[in-house]
Amino acid sequence: MKTRICFISPSAHSKMGGAESQLRHLLKTLGKRGVYAFIITRDIGSEIEQEVVDEIPTYFLFSRLGSFSFVLSAIAFLMRRVSEFDIVHVHTHCSPVLIGVPFRLFFGKKVIVLMRGSAEDISKARYLILKHVADKFIVLNQFAHDNLNNAGIDSEKIVKMRNGVDLYYFKPCGKTTRKKIRAKYGLRGETVVSSVTRLVPVKQVHLSVDIMRELVKINPKTMLLIVGDGPQRKELEKTIEDLRLQSHVRLLGECNKETVREILQISDYYLQTSASEGMSNSILEAMSTGLPAIVSDIPANREIIVNGTDGCLCNNEIISEYIDTFKTLFKDGRKKAGIGLNARKRVGKNNDIREICREYITLYSCLLSGKNA
Q1: Residue pLDDT, tens place only, 213-258
Q2: How confident is the model at residue 245, as a pLDDT?
Q3: What architecture (CATH level 2) is domain 4-164+352-369?
Q4: Where are the domains of the chain?
Q5: What residues have CB less than 8 Å from 52, skipping those under 6 apart?
Q6: Exposed/middle/buried for 348, CB within 10 Å: 0-12, 13-18, 19+?
Q7: Do the domains 175-350 and 4-164+352-369 match in fold?
Q8: Cβ–Cβ contacts within 10 Å for residue 321, how many?
Q9: Minimal CA–CA distance to 157: which of 363, 369, 351?
Q10: What angle do the packed helices 257-265 and 175-184 form, to 10 degrees?
């Protein structure tokens, strides 16, 4: 029997978020393996109610009166389609988890909840709700697993998964192609550092700008390309102007998948200064492209990078760690190349999207058959 899944992702309409990008990539690959899936998400202020995005049916539901209007809209919508799915997979641990309650209680549907980030700062009341709503919890790092355990969630209900990357899409390009792409973006001999991120407080993008202020003193040809958008854009634009870094830092805004790949392919380094992650898609894509990733030393990043071997971990409280790391790699081209090569190998071994899909299919099959995943 075909596995049928309703994915609930309040921000699936977003072009930029790593979790949203991962969801669409995962569903597209699952579809090729016979899994039927559709997404319900918040409306985006337009008249669009349904469209097929990346081959996935996507429904935009009323949410203009806040999160609970989305919850009620989703329950009403799914009540009319209760025979079309067997699993409710909620891509957040916030209020939309409530959508799964009536379908688990009255229709015997299975409910999976993806815990975003490291599952920190969740109230006891929310944990109590989650404990009684979900059949399985998916976590992306050990820190989140431990937090759930400490909150009283049974280990048998927690499944640790990994994010996946299309290794054949995110890969290094040849010198000729790289030169052409660089020319497209008006770049020639610059040392390019890239960062793909949302411009929100938790990502701490201002630290990347602070780092650049020091790097241009060491290498005046250093250029930072930031792909992404968010509420902090104007604040960052002012900071860049105040620091007179307009010719060294570019805010490129939201970009499609092809542009993200191009930016990574023309880069020399990848930089990320986030305070919290689940498992960063953007870091994995940079590593798959063969870039040395210089990133924040947080629990989630420690699980995808061995410091000094296939990437570099730096303390966000000590900016000089980032500067010293860049200095070392600026001087030692062989070490830089080795880290980039190891990075691609590591992602190839641990994060191939095809293998991740097999793991999800196993999880769904076990859940529906009553076996423990």
Answers
A1: 999 999 999 999 999 999 999 999 999 999 999 999 999 999 988 9
A2: 97
A3: 3-Layer(aba) Sandwich (3.40)
A4: 4-164+352-369, 175-350
A5: 58
A6: middle
A7: yes
A8: 18
A9: 363
A10: 120
Residues ≥6 apart with Cβ < 8 Å to 180: none
Amino acid found at 40? I
Measured CA to CA in angstroms, residue 15 lies from 12, 20, 161, 228, 263 at distances of 8, 8, 23, 9, 16
Say which CATH superfamily domain 175-350 falls into: Glycogen Phosphorylase B; (3.40.50.2000)
Confirm whether pTM is higher than 0.85. Answer: yes
| pLDDT, tens only, 41-74 | 888 666 667 777 777 888 988 887 878 888 999 9
Mark out the alpha helices in 32-188 (DSSP H runs): 67-79, 100-107, 124-133, 142-150, 175-184
Assigned token pair, 373 = 């995943």
Report helix, strand or coil for 158. strand
239 burial via Cβ count (<10 Å: 0-12, 13-18, 19+): middle
- Vertex 300 angle, CA 127 and 115, to 5°: 25
CB 261, CB 289: distance < 8 Å: yes
